[in-house]
Design brief:
The chain contains 15 helices and 21 strands. It is of the alpha/beta class. Among the domains are: 126 residues, Methylthiotransferase, N-terminal domain (Rossmann fold); 118 residues, Transcription Regulator spoIIAA, CATH 3.30.750.210; 63 residues, OB fold (Dihydrolipoamide Acetyltransferase, E2P) (Beta Barrel), CATH 2.40.50. A six-stranded parallel sheet has the order 2-1-3-4-5-6, sandwiched between helices. Strands 17-18-19-21-20 form a five-stranded mixed β-barrel. A three-stranded parallel sheet has the order 7-10-13, with helices on both faces. It is globular, with a radius of gyration of 22 Å.
């Protein structure tokens, strides 16, 4: 039987990790990956539910798949991810072209769902929390990326007013410490030089084994000892869980990168309260100051939600004033989007045009900071971990310590190595440069 799977991934890095692990799972029943969608025997859409029109995007995508396969044998169509969890069997009813709907906690069941489908049964799987990782722990992670994602924690107990994640990903669950380390060993064997630890609340990681409680700092300390690992990162962290043991890591770790993605969402204490974020703006400043004191090279990025119900012009001004105090080098900003089932979705929306105007103001500042930061690298030689050859222009791609993308004319032999690149051009998103002539000597 022909067995090719095409996976289309939307949403966060955790979805990207999940897509890789779904592939590791279906490989066991003979699937190989195809990058040509019209070749697929199984077409899997890994969905995201975080903002507007998530559901509509999925049905639109299904419509596209239908067109591609109009004159061909229909592929098995699987809808996975957070929309699948939120919508469940409704999707099978609304769109009969969909064959399997599987939520993020049930990927370990995908092979049996495919086999049941082949026997004529369409199914939605119920929410299960821990079993997914028990199953995945037994299968090797075959991702062979220089920079590899490793999920350590999943779900969220914080219930921010606006957020759908606690409903789609379930309660916080931390994977066993040893299982994570053993997966990191697999990744290293396949060529990983950078490990990005993932979780919806990655710094809430807490795993109790006998009398010891393992935290994110313990994972960082353990990974630090792997000689093959050159860089360690983690995302996404919450200010409430930015504990001193984690902050301390920045004072001695040689591999933890000096770049912290720490979402604040709003610069107004009143709005933070409405959002149920559980901390004030001052707490964020404290963390910022502590980290800067340890290492002034550390830079920050953040997430902002503009126009949360109840946000007045004065509250918005607080966000602008917050932005004048911290120069974020790269941030994400969104207009509040009411998500079904969340507390904020029952509140009165603020005028959309007002929210849009505010977003434009915020983005103008954030984009300027981002460009200024990128411009600070002009004519400098910076260390870049080379990740891959780019498909569209045959150039090579890597990242500096701040996660800036760096594009240069390279060579296959440098993939996985750290090179010095002299930057001669920048834009808001990327840096461009040439390999420093002495770099061959330094490639490590
Ligand atoms: N756990 C992370 C935290 O607490 O900061 C956030 C994870 S969420 C997947 C990523 C970002 O999406 C959030 O930081 C927030 O800015 C944005 N987001 C989530 N729900 C949203 C909504 N209803 N409307 C607009 N943006 C939203
Ligand atoms: Fe969503 Fe808040 Fe949990 Fe982050 S901490 S995943 S924003 S509920
Ligand atoms: Fe989206 Fe789910 Fe991630 S809603 S952002 S795919 S946790």
């Amino acid at each position: 039987m022909a067995n090719k799977i095409f996976i289309k991934t939307f949403g966060c890095q955790m979805n990207q990790y999940d897509s890789n692990r779904i592939f590791d799972t279906v490989k066991k029943i003979g699937f190989s990956k195809t990058s040509n969608q019209s070749d697929a025997d199984c077409y899997l859409i890994n969905t995201c539910h975080i903002r507007d029109k998530a559901k509509e995007k999925v049905y639109h995508e299904v419509g596209r798949v239908k067109k591609i396969f109009r004159d061909k044998k229909k592929p098995i169509l699987v809808v996975a991810g957070c929309v699948a969890q939120a919508e469940n069997e409704e999707m099978l009813k609304r769109e009969p072209y969909i064959d399997i709907v599987v939520g993020p906690q049930s990927y370990h069941q995908i092979n049996s769902l495919i086999s049941k489908y082949r026997k004529g049964r369409k199914e939605f799987t119920e929410f299960e929390t821990k079993y997914k990782f028990d199953y995945l722990d037994k299968i090797k992670n075959t991702s062979s990326n220089v920079s590899s994602f490793l999920t350590i924690q999943e779900g969220c107990d914080k219930f921010c007013s606006f957020c759908v994640v606690p409903y789609t990903r379930g309660p916080e669950y931390s994977r066993p410490f040893e299982k994570i380390i053993s997966e990191a060993q697999d990744l290293v064997k396949s060529g990983a030089k950078e490990i990005i630890l993932l979780g919806q609340n990655v710094n809430a990681y807490s795993f109790k084994d006998k009398s010891k409680v393992y935290r994110l700092s313990d994972l960082i300390n353990k990974l630090e000892k792997f000689t093959e690992i050159k860089r360690i990162r983690y995302t996404t962290s919450h200010p409430r869980d930015m504990t001193d043991d984690l902050i301390e890591c920045y004072s001695y770790s040689k591999k933890l990168q000096p770049f912290v993605h720490l979402p604040i969402q709003s610069g107004s204490d009143k709005v933070l309260k409405l959002m149920n974020r559980g901390h004030k703006v001052e707490k964020y400043f404290e963390i910022y100051k502590k980290l800067k004191k340890i290492n002034s090279k550390i830079e920050f990025s953040s997430d902002f939600i503009i126009g949360h119900p109840g946000e007045t012009e004065d509250d918005f001004k607080d966000t602008l004033s917050f932005l004048s105090k911290i120069k974020f080098i790269n941030s994400y900003s969104f207009i509040f989007s009411p998500r079904p089932g969340t507390p904020a979705s029952n509140l009165d929306l603020i005028d959309y045009e007002v929210a849009k105007e505010r977003l434009i103001k915020v983005q103008k500042i954030l984009f300027r900071y981002q460009l200024e930061h990128n411009e600070s690298f002009l004519e400098k030689k910076i260390e870049v971990l080379v990740e891959n050859k780019m498909k569209k222009n045959q150039m090579y791609f890597g990242r500096n310590e701040y996660l800036n993308g760096v594009i240069f004319d390279g060579d296959e032999k440098f993939v996985g190595k750290t090179l010095k690149i002299k930057i001669d051009k920048v834009n808001q998103n990327n840096l461009f440069g040439k390999i420093d002539s002495n770099s061959d000597m330094r490639a490590a």
